[in-house]
Amino acid sequence: MTILHIINNLSHGGAERILVDTAPSYSSLGHDITILQLNDKNSSSEYLATLERSGIKCLTLGQFGLYSPVKIIQLVNHLNKNDYDILHVHLFPALYWVAIASKFTRRQIQLVFTEHSTENKRFGKPYLRHLESWIYNSYTKVIVISEAIKSKLDRWANITDKIELIRNGVNVNQFIEAKSYPDSYWETQFSIPAGAMKLMMTARFGFPKDHITLIESLKFLPDYCYLILAGNGPNVEYVKHYVDANGLSNRIRFAGFRMDIPSLMKSVNLNILSSQYEGMSGVTLEALASGVPFLGSNVKGINDVVPDDRFLFEAGNSYALAQKIDTILFKDIEMQKSMITEGLKYVRKFDVSLMIDKHINLYKGLLKR
């Protein structure tokens, strides 16, 4: 199959990372994969390099803004000049532009869209409902990654017959087999002393992530608990200022965007994700696969991808989070061991190979129509 993935750009977001991580797997199965960015503003050089090394074609429509209607014309021209079996679209406004462009193309192409989030600024606005329904109904299939998204999208756009639930997956073996960094690495790279307890959150600095609750929890924990924040985003400077203003800069390290997340996750004592909501948290699954205890906010997108409530804390409650951290790391080592074992067992059902198989079967079914 020739499959074109269309996405706004390849910035450091969850949908973008999943696409970059999985595209080589589809290619290795004999499918011709191309990624088309609406523009390359904010695209990750690391992601682009990864795709190039894997032999994945990555094209860019041009430098017009993401919200420029010129994108419709550019898409029509591209689709009329190229022959694809499947168009798989990700994120807004690519969702809109491809739906409109498809009405003006000479070729009949199967359109697939993945809805990656339970929330967006369009849901719930009555004046957009008819337009949204028309847009979503322009696609042959709409993939949702969780039951929560399925329920909300069906109520909003009335597309029951088009919805297909395919949960995101992670490369479980990549995290299980990752090499752990020794204490000397943390001392050299992050000035974290040997024997310190290392907590880590891997997330973009921006809504809906909630770094502040996690940072506040450090105030209730021993001084030898250090926090590593991996990622970047629009709120990073605000968070850095907050850390300084609260006198915590000596215990918090900003690691920036990293390509060695499997090794980092495996090397810390506890992985944490504090968030107001998630679509379906890949970071949660990665943390479970790392063989290290995990705690996440008790919100949709996290609480439906963990084994049980031991892995959750009350969203926005820094003291409750600190108490859970204290229990797992210091007071109940048997519970810690049990969480690691249960996490590794549980995450197997989210292996990326299962997701890829379901996508391919969906594509094949569409081409038989």
UniProtKB/TrEMBL annotation:
Coiled coil: none annotated. It holds the Pfam family Glycos_transf_1. Residues 13-173 form the Glycosyltransferase subfamily 4-like N-terminal domain. It comes from the Bacteria. Residues 194-343 form the Glycosyl transferase family domain. GO terms for molecular function: glycosyltransferase activity. PANTHER family: GLYCOSYLTRANSFERASE (PTHR12526). This is Glycosyltransferase. It comes from Dyadobacter helix.
